[in-house]
């Protein structure tokens, strides 16, 4: 059973003062236009009809810069959402916006509604990257907005992107570290994809932008994720939500797209953990797991099998139905975790 549900209301590109170089929210969200009142009601009620037993439910406005929408329109959206919050005892409202569209006046206004969380599209803390990406705000705007939001009882979420124009691995790592210093409750990580009908697609076809490959992206995430986890920051998502349109060959022209990106990262974390553990073992060893973790050991499309068989000494992997779903046995030792970042030896 689900523990949490976001009811997403997309306001694609609403409130955005201009087009960022990478952005086409109408393609990314799958919605060409913002919902009218009837459509919003239908969307909320459709989600609620499937939410029996879900303990935490929020209404979330995504896809634009909510606080940049004309104030009367914001009131209309928030009033409608508030009606459902009270009627069904939902947890609250979440919204996304730009760092340069946060002021004390805006936060005072939002405080009159059951808004519980604000997510900022930070994307990068490198001013050179922000300028090359046509973001229209600076890293200082991010710092100022986060400080303001932290003075109110809102959850703070920050979104970062990997591989924007002028970005480097070092700059992305620096962005992650600076985000940690801003003390958000949660983050989302989005590798940059070349989406159809964006200025970035034009640069890509002109040979002026080269997207990062999947391997670079996965390896960078293997460095970034532990930093957020060690700081107690929840990672809500890695990679864009896959839709029929958000696929290579559809609206994704190029870039490190994979429909199961987080799964690939988790599988490689598990692989690296085991390889590090057996580094001083000089004889063949068996690694055992229940069915679910065994699939992670095998890897996507059995991609890890050559690594195990080619290891010196050889590592044998096999299923052990007697093991709990969160336990791996390496030789005679047991390692337990419900999540790959917490894997540790227990006995």
UniProtKB/TrEMBL annotation:
Keywords: 4Fe-4S, Iron, Iron-sulfur, Metal-binding, S-adenosyl-L-methionine. GO terms for biological process: tRNA wobble base 5-methoxycarbonylmethyl-2-thiouridinylation. It comes from Petrocella atlantisensis. Residues 1-234 form the Radical SAM core domain. This is Radical SAM protein. GO terms for molecular function: 4 iron, 4 sulfur cluster binding; catalytic activity; metal ion binding. PROSITE patterns: RADICAL_SAM (PS51918). CDD domains: Radical_SAM (cd01335). InterPro entries: ELP3, Elp3/MiaA/NifB-like_rSAM, Radical_SAM_C, rSAM, rSAM_horseshoe, rSAM_sf.
């Amino acid at each position: 059973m689900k523990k949490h549900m976001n009811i997403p209301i997309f306001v694609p590109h609403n409130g955005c003062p201009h087009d960022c170089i990478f952005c086409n929210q109408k393609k990314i969200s799958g919605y060409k236009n913002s919902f009218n009142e009837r459509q919003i009601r239908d969307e909320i009620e459709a989600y609620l009809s499937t939410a029996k037993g879900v303990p935490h439910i929020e209404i979330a406005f995504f896809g634009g810069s909510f606080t940049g929408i004309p104030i009367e329109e914001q009131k209309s959206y928030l009033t409608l959402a508030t009606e459902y919050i009270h009627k069904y005892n939902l947890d609250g409202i979440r919204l996304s916006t730009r760092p340069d569209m946060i002021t004390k006046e805006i936060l005072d206004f939002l405080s009159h509604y059951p808004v519980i969380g604000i997510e900022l599209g930070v994307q990068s803390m490198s001013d050179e990257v922000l300028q090359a990406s046509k973001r229209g705000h600076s890293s200082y705007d991010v710092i100022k907005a986060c400080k303001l939001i932290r003075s109110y009882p809102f959850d703070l979420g920050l979104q970062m992107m990997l591989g924007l124009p002028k970005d480097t691995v070092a700059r992305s790592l620096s962005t992650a570290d600076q985000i940690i210093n801003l003390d958000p409750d949660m983050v989302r990580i989005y590798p940059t994809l070349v989406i159809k009908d964006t200025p970035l697609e034009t640069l890509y076809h002109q040979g002026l932008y080269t997207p990062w490959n999947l391997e670079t992206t996965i390896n960078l995430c293997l460095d970034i994720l532990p930093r957020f986890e060690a700081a107690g920051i929840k990672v809500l998502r890695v990679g864009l939500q896959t839709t029929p349109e958000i696929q290579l060959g559809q609206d994704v022209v190029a870039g490190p797209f994979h429909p199961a990106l987080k799964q690939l990262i988790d599988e490689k974390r598990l692989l690296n953990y085991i390889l590090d553990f057996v580094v001083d073992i000089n004889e063949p060893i068996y690694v055992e797991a229940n069915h679910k973790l065994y699939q992670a050991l095998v890897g996507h499309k059995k991609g890890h099998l050559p690594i195990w068989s080619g290891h010196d000494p050889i590592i044998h992997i096999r299923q052990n139905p007697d093991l709990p779903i969160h336990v791996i046995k390496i030789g005679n030792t047991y390692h337990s975790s419900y999540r790959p970042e917490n894997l540790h030896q227990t006995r």
